[in-house]
Amino acid sequence: MTSNTEISDALREKRERVFLVLAGFFLCAMTMLNIIGITRFIQLGPMALAVGVLPYPLTFLCTDLISELYGRARANFMVTVGLALNFFIIGIMWLASAIPSVDPSNQPPWQLIELAESVALPDGSVIGDSVELYTLLYATTAGAVTASMFAYIAAQYCDVYMFHFWKRLTKGKHLWLRNNGSTLVSQGVDSFMVIAVTFGAQFLAGAISAGAMLVLMGSNYLFKLFVALADTIPFYLGVHYLRRYLELADDEIAAYAEG
After folding, report:
1. Domain that holds residue 156
2. pLDDT of 152-173, one tens digit each?
C-alpha cells in the first residue's frame, strides 16, 4: 500500500484512468437515458418501463464506487458535471428545434412522417396529418430530459449524501448497507420525480390517469430496486479488486471519505 504523500506519477495516472472509466460509464448511461427516454415502453414481466430506464441504475453503481474509492468530493464533482451535460443536451435540442427546417421539397424522405390519425404528444399538444421526425423525437425526449434534470439533481446528490451518511453511521463497515441504503432511497426519489415531471402536463390535461402514473412510478421503482439489490455483488467485487489495483491505503480512504 502507498501513503497519500508517496504516490508515484504512474500510480496517480492509474487512479485517474479508473476514475475516468467509472465517470465515463456514469455519463454515458445518463446521456442514453436522455436520448432514448420515453421513445419506447417495454414490458418486463408485470413492469411497464420506459426504455431509457434500462441504463440508468448503472449510474448509482458508478456513484457508489467513486464515493467509496475516491470520496464524497469526487462523487459530487462527477454529479455536477453530469448536471452541466443535462443543460448542454437541452440547449442543443432547443437550438435544433428553433432553427427553421429546409424547404419541404428538399427534405429527405424520412424527415416527414405521415400520420393516419391525430396523435397526443407528451407535452399535451396534438398533431395530425404529418409531423417532422425531429419534432416527434423532440416532443418525446425534451420532457424526459427536463424531468431527468429535476430527478437527477435530487436523486444523485441524495445518493452521495446517503452513502456517506451510512458509512459514518457504521464506521466504515457493512458495504452492503451503504450501497443498498443509499441507492434504494435515491431511486425512490428519482422514480417519483421523473414520472411526475414527464407526464405532469398530460395528467393535468386529463390524457393520463393518476392510476396509470402510479403504475409507471411503481414499475420504475421495482425495476431499480431489483437492480440495486443485484448490483451488491458487483459493488463488493469492484471495491475489493480496485482497492488493491489502485493501492489505496486505509488512511487514504478515510481522508477521501472526509472530503
Report:
1. 9-97+133-258
2. 777 777 777 887 787 787 777 7
